[in-house]
């Protein structure tokens, strides 16, 4: 269904809850609309929108918004150890995590309560508490809007990296329609990150055999812990507009980290490899006293410095300005340039690309691809 009103209100379609409008809106909720979607994108500027949980909208968008609300899922290809699930892009990510856990399958428990839709998950390569989506993703089905075809990308083709992917590198080119994940039938807890290792410590305290202790844990218990921690630290977007972590945790070389460590002994970081460290961006921001700082209705959350919030009818521009203040101060003090995890969307709804460098070697086109 296409809304052709002169201006479409997007305030309820972004988790920051900032006032924003667009020229029009297409609700993409059936696969028989694929032809309509492709034609629309060939005729005018567009923005692909899922849950709106990783975007900062800046005023009026002179484009058509394609709101992806495809629903449904199915299990298939079951073995003794694993089972696959294909989930349509419009499903709520957290709801599907809980669905799989309640069905007795594990793997996604550390990714509980991450906001947004399933279709947005591969774009960001979402991750939390030592687990990333790429570890479980088998394939992504999408519309290649440049070629006008349905395509399937395997894990390798997605070019996953930390909060990055082939889809993010080519924003606007692919409209993800479904995602296939391989889940575990036997639970293997991932408790390396604080405070999840508290679960292992608690279990071990009542059982001298640490391996046996952790084997009594369930995936749902881990999910419950993740949910409790996130609810304690992160505001509910329905109550206080936000997009979760606004910045990525920066990765720096070890020499840089050691210099910072000598100046700031309490700095929080985790090894990436022998040469690099991932620094907690929230710690950097907190050290500079930004918690609770406000700017024209925007604010840094009082409990988690990594989260910017719409505290009092802030505009997208006000939130952006506050983020720039943080970036400038962090770079001045620590020599680290924070990179936004949240995507900015303004007049230019679709980024210009250099398609001449595209590599399609590992992209398979579905038999029912549309050649328009």
TrEMBL record:
GO BP of this protein: cell division; cell wall organization; peptidoglycan biosynthetic process; regulation of cell shape
All residue ranges annotated as the FAD-binding PCMH-type domain in the record: 18-186
Subcellular location: Cytoplasm
Domain of life: Bacteria
Pathway per the UniProt entry: Cell wall biogenesis; peptidoglycan biosynthesis
Coiled coil: none
Family, as annotated: Belongs to the MurB family.
Protein name per its UniProtKB record: UDP-N-acetylenolpyruvoylglucosamine reductase
Species whose genome carries this gene: Pleionea mediterranea
């Amino acid at each position: 269904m296409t809304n052709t009103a002169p201006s479409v209100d997007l305030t309820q379609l972004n988790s920051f809850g900032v006032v924003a409008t667009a020229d029009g809106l297409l609700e993409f909720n059936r696969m028989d609309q694929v032809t309509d979607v492709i034609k629309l994108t060939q005729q005018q500027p567009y923005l692909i929108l899922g849950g709106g949980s990783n975007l900062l909208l800046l005023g009026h968008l002179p484009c058509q918004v394609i709101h992806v609300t495809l629903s449904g899922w199915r299990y298939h290809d079951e073995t003794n150890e694993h089972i696959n699930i294909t989930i349509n892009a419009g499903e709520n990510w957290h709801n599907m995590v809980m669905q799989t856990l309640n069905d007795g399958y594990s793997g996604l428990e550390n990714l509980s309560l991450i906001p947004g839709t399933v279709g947005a998950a591969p774009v960001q390569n979402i991750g939390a508490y030592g687990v990333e989506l790429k570890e479980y993703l088998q394939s992504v089905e999408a519309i290649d809007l440049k070629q006008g075809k349905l395509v399937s990308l395997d894990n390798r083709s997605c070019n996953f990296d930390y909060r990055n992917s082939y889809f993010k590198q080519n924003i606007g080119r692919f409209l993800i329609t479904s995602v296939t994940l391989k889940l575990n039938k036997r639970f293997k807890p991932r408790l390396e990150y604080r405070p999840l290792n508290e679960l292992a410590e608690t279990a071990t305290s009542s059982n001298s055999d640490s391996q046996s202790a952790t084997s009594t844990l369930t995936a749902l218990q881990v999910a419950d812990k993740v949910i409790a921690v996130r609810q304690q630290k992160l505001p509910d977007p329905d109550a206080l507009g936000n997009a979760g972590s606004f910045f990525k945790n920066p990765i720096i070389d070890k020499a840089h980290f050691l210099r910072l460590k000598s100046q700031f002994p309490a700095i929080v970081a985790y090894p990436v490899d022998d040469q690099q460290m991932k620094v907690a961006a929230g710690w950097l921001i907190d050290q500079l006293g930004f918690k609770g700082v406000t700017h024209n209705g925007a604010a840094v959350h009082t409990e988690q410095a990594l989260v910017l919030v719409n505290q009092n009818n802030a505009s997208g521009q006000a939130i952006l300005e506050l983020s720039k203040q943080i970036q400038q101060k962090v770079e001045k003090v620590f020599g680290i340039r924070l990179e936004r995890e949240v995507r900015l969307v303004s007049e230019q709804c679709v980024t210009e690309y250099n398609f001449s460098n595209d590599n399609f070697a590992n992209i398979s086109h579905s038999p029912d691809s549309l050649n328009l």
